[in-house]
Specification:
heterodimer, A: about 110 residues, mainly beta, 7-stranded mixed sheet, 4-stranded antiparallel sheet, globular, B: about 110 residues
């Protein structure tokens, strides 16, 4: 089984709808991250969490919110989706003992029409 | 501010030829540097990392990278490319336990 899983893998939604992307990990890591990938822009950090009670905004948090339900679960929500949130979204985890090395899920492709 | 630049958007090489992907970083202190690979439809996989010590680091799949502080570079190399290496490659720098990524280089491999 994959160490970092994301659901759904693909989603098409309409402008104004609320949508939640979920991430689960079995690596036992404390730190979790949400990124979005856009062509030509690489990956940009949306939110990150260093433990269950710690939530921090990343580079592009506007229009997004997150919830860290447990050490293993970190969800990303779009309260009112807009077309420029169409992107590939990745969840990642890292060990608090390490420095920088992150483990990525397979991604969720989100299309907002 | 910290940043990572990958100047080549696309690179095409013939199978069996050597490869070098460029990465330049901007970071005030000693950087922690990474190369990740993203195969089509997949997440990112770590190829190699540099934290300190030997400036030439070896990674998986026959890749290596050289850290050059004087040039603020961390270029990725492979002596002989295989068709399965076709993918997108990302350089990243750690900034307080968060990664800052470059915009990526897409590698195409000619048969």
């Amino acid at each position: 089984d994959a160490d970092v899983t994301q659901t759904p893998r693909n989603r098409i939604t309409k402008t104004g709808k609320r949508i939640m992307l979920e991430c689960s990990q079995t690596k036992g890591h404390d730190r979790m991250y949400w990124y979005r990938q856009d062509p030509g822009l690489g990956l940009r950090l949306i939110y990150y969490s260093f433990d269950v009670k710690d939530i921090n905004k990343g580079e592009i948090s506007d229009g997004y919110s997150v919830s860290r339900q447990a050490q293993a679960k970190f969800s990303l929500s779009l309260e009112s989706a807009i077309p420029n949130q169409t992107a590939l979204y990745f969840c990642a985890t890292s060990d608090s003992q390490g420095r920088g090395e992150q483990y990525f899920g397979p991604g969720t492709r989100l299309t907002v029409t | 501010a910290q940043s990572v630049t990958q100047p080549d958007i696309h690179i095409t090489v013939s199978e069996g030829a050597s490869l070098e992907l460029r990465c330049n970083y901007s970071y005030g202190a000693t950087p922690y540097l990474f190369w990740y690979v993203q195969s089509p439809g997949q997440g990112l996989q770590l190829l190699l990392k540099y934290f300190s010590g030997d400036t030439l680091v070896q990674g998986i799949k026959g890749f290596e990278a050289e850290f050059k502080r004087s040039q603020s570079s961390f270029n990725l190399r492979k002596p002989s490319v295989h068709w399965s290496d076709a993918a997108e490659y990302f350089c990243a720098v750690d900034s307080s336990y968060k990664l800052i990524f470059g915009s990526g280089t897409r590698l195409l491999v000619r048969p």
